[in-house]
């Protein structure tokens, strides 16, 4: 029996699905004149989907219509659907043509028309933004008067942020004096981005763009660290000289250099810096933006940025906090782009459809359908023109309208489908070229795209790519011309940018898996060649291309380089992300020896990131250290082994695992003996110092600190920080200062704290600076300088906020709470202290005895005897569990003072507690706490009438001090002695 003809066979004529043409009579499919082969049954399925476009067609309906003569299983239908998707280059998970409706059937989601697409005239760049332009010009006027300005243009995707900025820049180019413009683009890559990328782009714009010799001189003189990150600007000889002059580029130095350079450039000519898409910015760029806005120096500078607020909030991006803080302080303005009004839509449609005039009904319909969303409006207008859906309306005086309401025309609600229609209208050669360009990124160079097309179906020379891109880079189109780029190898090519991220995303999705891999490999190879010896500067980009190109050995090699580069810029989140991405790729490596070497480098970066953020309580941090230890042992890598053992020690410290801590100490001692390695010796001394501190052996602690300082003077230890996460000279000063205070030398302790801070600031390592600020504040706390503690705590909060160093932020709250209490508000201070202590304990699991000691001190100030006694009890219990005894004498002293306050009936308990505090401090030779205990006990005995005994006790301790007589404890002791005399 002959098969019945499906209902869709009735009636002839062609139907257009995107840039495909389907003949309903012959069941043949074409794309741009080329036949697309389909088997008969697949063509029948397509005919039914086209006739019922937009509807969900049940699987059983398709089976009954296309295979009416007998039962056929779902598998046969699935084969046909897959064949059609292959023909359309469609993706079942992100369908542009045929969508699967779960448990129901299939639906054709692409637009279907009976006429080929129609090309319209270019639309105006901007409508309805005069008020917004006026705001930007007001910011610019203030900048011209020397009042630096920071402005945020915020709106969701496709609402015209870039178009507004472009129009503003175009208008400024008519101003006198002519401004300098530097633009940078934040890019959302699959892997972590390059630190400061948009700022580096802006710097390169200023260097390459129209400029005077004075501008070049300013950049060379004041922004050397930044120019070093742009090796493509110099010859090898110039770069070597620059590198020798710059030395190590720390974070504070880079921030300072950029700010000073921009200020000096703006003194020559007014300067506009544009940083686009901050929602994709790396943390380093956000920190730079905040630094620029907070400076008080006059500058004819406007920093104009754009971002999508929904993306910022959803990702918990640090730019959200920075924007809120700058606006609250009056240091920045914000301009939120509203959706277009009906009048704006009318202006756009009148220009777009000219000489035809849109009817009021059409204007209202487009405004209602798009809700004034600029990109959606543009896409919808393109759809109306291509599908020839505009008809004359005789009732509207000859104006054009649609025959049916827009909502009934099957126009997709997602912007994606609208943009796909615009892309489908391009010539096949243009699409092929742009698909390859989409793999290069939002911005691309013509020579890179030419390399990506080599040996493929759309092979093009560089000149041909430039010609096609030049034709497409017209107002309202997909591309924007950015000028020429000169690569480090001397070659030059035109550079372009997609006008919207969504164009790039849609084009990239059209690359099939095999072609996508080939394109990325070609791009990676080309970028490696043009950058040559300087390719490490773009290691993150190269790693991404080779990974997507399935060249995993190359991807891993560049991932390691990217992690190293990020760590060198103190960009720890980026370094950590690169390390984890590399570890995910290790299974792709076949050579075990090479795999082990690469894993060693990646694990080391992972451990250093944990050290920088003090993330030792995370199980994955301990696992990383164990794996690094195993790899370093196998490969004889002493620095890697030292880093692993230090990390394991810190992880054991967080858990109170004394046995494991001793094991790590002994193993590092063994490494020192076997290798005679100075770096290992420094780490061994550092861990022994920590052990001495926890056990109250302060004389030994000071001896080791001195030895560390001597070693740091003798040997080059610059690279040790990147290996273990601690700057050894800073650590030696800090621990030495703590030991000196305990031994009774407060002036020397403060001098070492200041030296540590100076060194930490000069090194510019954020985690190291945070650690130094915390320890220095503790030394000032011991000296009783509450005002200085508050200032240091404030600086610590600023560092932690910029770099997400939560452990030290919690520590800052503890210190600040204590200072607030001592300065006269103990209730508020105690609440802040306890909040910080709770966060610290949750993150680190240590420090309870110190926190309880400080809490007990504030409870004593408020007269809260019960709370203070509970705090001392908890602190002493913690000492019993952890055997961390630094605070034990002070806890007993505070307990005695609280018991005195509780009434005469507890005097015996108070005296016993005070005597025990003095005994512990004296036995352990902790002279700082010995003086406190002696002062408290002398007061107690004075109150009991034992004046001579009290005076002899206190004088015997006080007279041993030779310095620090301005500190709180010595001033207090002197006052008590005067009373006793």
UniProtKB/TrEMBL annotation:
<dbReference type="Pfam" id="PF00486">
    <property type="entry name" value="Trans_reg_C"/>
</dbReference>
<dbReference type="Pfam" id="PF13191">
    <property type="entry name" value="AAA_16"/>
</dbReference>
<feature type="DNA-binding region" description="OmpR/PhoB-type">
    <location>
        <begin position="12"/>
        <end position="110"/>
    </location>
</feature>
<keyword id="KW-0067">ATP-binding</keyword>
<dbReference type="GO" id="GO:0006355">
    <property type="term" value="P:regulation of DNA-templated transcription"/>
</dbReference>
<dbReference type="InterPro" id="IPR001867">
    <property type="entry name" value="OmpR/PhoB-type_DNA-bd"/>
</dbReference>
<dbReference type="GO" id="GO:0003677">
    <property type="term" value="F:DNA binding"/>
</dbReference>
<dbReference type="InterPro" id="IPR016032">
    <property type="entry name" value="Sig_transdc_resp-reg_C-effctor"/>
</dbReference>
<keyword id="KW-0547">Nucleotide-binding</keyword>
<dbReference type="GO" id="GO:0000160">
    <property type="term" value="P:phosphorelay signal transduction system"/>
</dbReference>
<dbReference type="InterPro" id="IPR041664">
    <property type="entry name" value="AAA_16"/>
</dbReference>
<dbReference type="InterPro" id="IPR027417">
    <property type="entry name" value="P-loop_NTPase"/>
</dbReference>
<dbReference type="GO" id="GO:0005524">
    <property type="term" value="F:ATP binding"/>
</dbReference>
<feature type="domain" description="OmpR/PhoB-type">
    <location>
        <begin position="12"/>
        <end position="110"/>
    </location>
</feature>
<protein>
    <recommendedName>
        <fullName>OmpR/PhoB-type domain-containing protein</fullName>
    </recommendedName>
</protein>
<dbReference type="GO" id="GO:0004016">
    <property type="term" value="F:adenylate cyclase activity"/>
</dbReference>
<keyword id="KW-0238">DNA-binding</keyword>
<dbReference type="InterPro" id="IPR036388">
    <property type="entry name" value="WH-like_DNA-bd_sf"/>
</dbReference>
<dbReference type="GO" id="GO:0005737">
    <property type="term" value="C:cytoplasm"/>
</dbReference>
């Amino acid at each position: 029996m002959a098969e019945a003809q499906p209902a869709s066979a009735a009636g002839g004529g062609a139907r257009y699905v995107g840039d495909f043409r389907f003949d309903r009579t012959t069941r043949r499919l074409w794309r741009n004149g080329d036949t697309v082969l389909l088997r008969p049954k697949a063509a029948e399925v397509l005919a039914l989907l086209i006739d019922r476009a937009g509807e969900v067609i049940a699987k059983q309906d398709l089976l009954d219509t296309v295979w009416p003569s007998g039962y056929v299983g779902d598998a046969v239908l699935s084969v046909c659907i897959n064949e059609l998707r292959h023909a359309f280059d469609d993706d079942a998970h992100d369908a542009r043509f045929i969508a699967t409706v779960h448990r129901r059937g299939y639906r054709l989601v692409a637009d279907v028309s009976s006429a080929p697409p129609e090309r319209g005239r270019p639309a105006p760049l901007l409508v309805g933004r005069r008020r917004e332009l006026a705001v930007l010009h007001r910011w610019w006027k203030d900048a011209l008067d020397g009042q630096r300005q920071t402005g945020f243009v915020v709106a969701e995707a496709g609402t015209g942020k870039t178009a507004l900025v472009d129009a503003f820049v175009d208008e400024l180019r008519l101003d006198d004096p002519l401004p300098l413009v530097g633009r940078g683009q934040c890019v959302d890559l699959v892997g972590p981005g390059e630190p400061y990328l948009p700022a580096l782009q802006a710097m390169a714009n200023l260097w390459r763009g129209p400029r005077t010799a004075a501008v070049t001189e300013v950049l060379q003189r004041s922004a050397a660290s930044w120019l070093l990150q742009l090796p493509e600007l110099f010859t090898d000889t110039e770069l070597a000289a620059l590198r020798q002059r710059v030395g190590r580029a720390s974070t504070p130095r880079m921030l300072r250099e950029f700010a000073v350079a921009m200020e000096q450039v703006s003194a020559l000519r007014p300067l506009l810096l544009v940083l686009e898409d901050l929602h994709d910015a790396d943390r380093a760029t956000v920190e730079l933006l905040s630094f620029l806005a907070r400076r008080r120096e006059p500058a004819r500078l406007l920093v104009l940025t754009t971002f999508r607020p929904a993306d910022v909030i959803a990702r918990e991006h640090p730019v959200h906090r920075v924007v809120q803080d700058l606006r609250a302080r009056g240091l920045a303005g914000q301009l939120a782009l509203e959706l277009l009004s009906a009048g704006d839509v009318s202006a756009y449609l009148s220009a777009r459809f000219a000489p035809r005039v849109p009817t009021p009904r059409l204007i209202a319909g487009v405004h209602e359908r798009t809700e004034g969303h600029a990109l959606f409006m543009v896409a919808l207008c393109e759809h109306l023109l291509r599908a020839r859906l505009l008809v004359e309306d005789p009732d509207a005086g000859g104006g054009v309208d649609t025959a049916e309401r827009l909502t009934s025309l099957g126009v997709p609600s997602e912007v994606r489908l609208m943009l796909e229609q615009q892309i489908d209208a391009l010539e096949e050669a243009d699409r092929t070229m742009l698909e390859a360009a989409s793999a290069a990124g939002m911005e691309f160079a013509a020579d890179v795209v030419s390399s990506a097309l080599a040996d493929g179906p759309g092979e093009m020379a560089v000149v041909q790519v430039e010609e096609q891109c030049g034709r497409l880079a017209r107002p309202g189109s997909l591309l924007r011309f950015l000028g020429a780029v000169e690569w480090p190898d001397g070659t030059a090519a035109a550079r372009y940018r997609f006008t919207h991220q969504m164009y790039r995303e849609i084009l990239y999705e059209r690359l099939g898996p095999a072609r996508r891999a080939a394109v990325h490999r070609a791009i990676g190879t080309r970028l490696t060649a043009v950058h040559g010896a300087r390719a490490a500067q773009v290691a993150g980009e190269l790693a991404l291309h080779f990974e997507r190109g399935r060249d995993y050995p190359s991807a891993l090699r560049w991932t390691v380089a990217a992690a190293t580069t990020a760590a060198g810029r103190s960009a720890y989140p980026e370094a950590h992300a690169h390390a984890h991405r590399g570890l995910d790729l290790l299974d792709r490596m076949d050579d075990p020896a090479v795999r082990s070497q690469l894993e060693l480098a990646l694990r080391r970066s992972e451990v250093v990131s944990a050290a920088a953020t003090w993330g030792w309580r995370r199980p994955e941090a301990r696992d990383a250290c164990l794996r690094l230890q195993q790899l370093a042992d196998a490969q004889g890598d002493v620095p890697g082994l030292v880093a692993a053992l230090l990390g394991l020690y810190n992880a054991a410290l967080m858990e109170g695992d004394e046995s494991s801590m001793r094991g790590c100490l002994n193993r590092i001692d063994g490494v020192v003996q076997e290798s005679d390695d100075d770096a290992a010796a420094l780490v061994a001394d550092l861990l022994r110092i920590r052990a001495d501190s926890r056990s109250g052996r302060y004389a030994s602690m000071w001896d080791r600190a001195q030895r560390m300082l001597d070693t740091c003077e003798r040997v080059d230890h610059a690279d040790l920080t990147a290996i273990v996460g601690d700057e050894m000279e800073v650590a030696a000063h800090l621990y030495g200062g703590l030991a000196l205070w305990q031994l009774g030398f407060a002036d020397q302790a403060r001098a070492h704290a200041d030296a540590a801070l100076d060194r930490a600031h000069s090194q510019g390592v954020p985690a190291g600076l945070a650690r130094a600020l915390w320890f220095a504040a503790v030394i000032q706390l011991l000296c009783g300088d509450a005002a200085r503690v508050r200032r240091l705590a404030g600086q610590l909060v600023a560092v932690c906020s910029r770099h997400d160093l939560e452990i030290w932020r919690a520590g800052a709250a503890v210190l600040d709470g204590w200072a607030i209490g001592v300065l006269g508000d103990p209730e508020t201070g105690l609440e802040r202290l306890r909040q910080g202590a709770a966060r610290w304990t949750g993150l680190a699991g240590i420090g309870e005895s110190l926190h309880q000691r400080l809490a007990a001190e504030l409870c004593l100030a408020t007269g809260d005897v019960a709370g203070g006694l509970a705090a001392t009890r908890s602190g002493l219990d913690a000492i019993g569990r952890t055997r961390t005894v630094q605070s034990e004498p002070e806890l007993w002293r505070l307990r005695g003072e609280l018991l005195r306050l509780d009434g005469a009936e507890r005097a015996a308990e108070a005296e016993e507690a005070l005597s025990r505090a003095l005994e512990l401090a004296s036995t352990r030779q902790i002279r700082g706490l010995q003086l406190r205990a002696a002062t408290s006990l002398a007061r107690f005995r004075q109150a009991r009438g034992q004046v001579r005994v009290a005076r002899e006790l206190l004088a015997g301790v006080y007279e041993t001090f030779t310095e620090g007589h301005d500190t709180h404890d010595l001033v207090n002791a002197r006052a008590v002695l005067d009373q006793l005399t």
